[in-house]
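I hope you will forgive my troubling you with a question about protein structure. The full record is reproduced below for your convenience:

——
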Amino acid sequence: MKRIAPGKIRLGLSTAVLGECVCGRVRIEIDFPARWAWHDHSVASRHAHGAAYATYVGSWRRRFRVTAGLADITRYEDSESGTVRSFCARCGTPVCYERSRSPHMVNVPRALFKTRTGRQPLYHLFIEETPEWAYLAEPLVPLKGFPGVMWERSKRKKRPIFGLL
């Protein structure tokens, strides 16, 4: 086997990144590295995931594979927006999200992968649709008596300093 000099990257070799749904019936893989990654704050993704936002990794369709559980995948097609969302029919885990305007791409929830995908989510889409109740990196402190629970202290109103204008 030919040795590669330190710091050099060997081209032409792809490593699969494995992902699966909560129950494990549906298994997928994408080639490493993913094309890109982002946080989606849109109402549609929020409803589909039941969370403040969804984090996705994008993969070229030809680099995305369902390796188990194809028969366990159910799809929801929104013809108005031109999107298709696929879910595990057994546990409800979102498996992928496709857009008609990008037929060559498949978007996969980042949480399905236990290992690195080769891309960090650096982008925020539809940030203007973020709900007012979403966590926005406010300082958190441990909740006394509840290990592992953090909370936001209520914001105290500053008392006016009399005599200073």
Summary: The chain has one domain: 15-132. Residues 90 and 127 are 32 Å apart (CA to CA). The helical segments are 43-49.
